[in-house]
Amino acid sequence: MRIKTIVDEDFTNYKKASMFIGTISCGGKCCIEAGIPLSVCQNDGWRSCAPIAMSDRQICMRYMANPLTNAIVIGGLEPFEQAKEVRKLVWMLRNVFMCDDDVVIYTGYTPDEIEEEVKLLSEFKNIIIKYGRYVPNAKTRYDDVLGVNLVSDNQYAVKIS
Ligand code: SF4
């Protein structure tokens, strides 16, 4: 899977200690729709970074080797711009490494925009999706599913499987 960052132990995006994987692109929908510069996007810093080449097997092995983490979070930029790659990674985790740990996906899309992709992902156990645009200066909101504060109060997470 093409990624821009990988953090072995992250405690900020989910209630469980997680490996965090940053995806490679986002067209900037939150900023474009709000009529504000892309630089306001909370993930803008990642746009200029070069992708890292890591195979799905390498990512899974790295995750499985760390006894401290028990979830994987896939986040910004926009994971659903590479939905097929995300599915392949989850497939390998579930079917080759036989690991059913939670996989949390942070998207800026709303459910109606990614219905088909979500349906395909729901074939795997324990998938959680955080939906909704980033709205600058919105109120934060504590999300019970994730167990963390989300930056905009229109955002929420759902356990889809
Ligand atoms: S979806 Fe994420 S990366 Fe894309 S514009 Fe919104 S906040 Fe930025």
Q: What does it look like?
A:
By secondary structure, the protein is α/β, with parallel strands linked by helices. The chain has one domain (2-159). The chain contains four helices and ten strands. The chain has helices at residues 29-34, 56-64, 83-95, 115-121, and strands spanning 2-3, 5-10, 18-22, 52-53, 71-75, 102-106, 127-131, 141-143, 148-150, 156-159. The strands form three sheets. Strands 2-3-5-6-7-10 form a six-stranded mixed beta sheet, with no helix packed on it. A two-stranded antiparallel sheet has the order 1-4. The protein is globular, with a radius of gyration of 15 Å. The protein starts with a strand and ends with a strand. The model has no long low-confidence stretch (mean pLDDT 97). The structure holds iron/sulfur cluster (SF4).
In short:
With 161 residues, this protein is α/β, with parallel strands linked by helices.
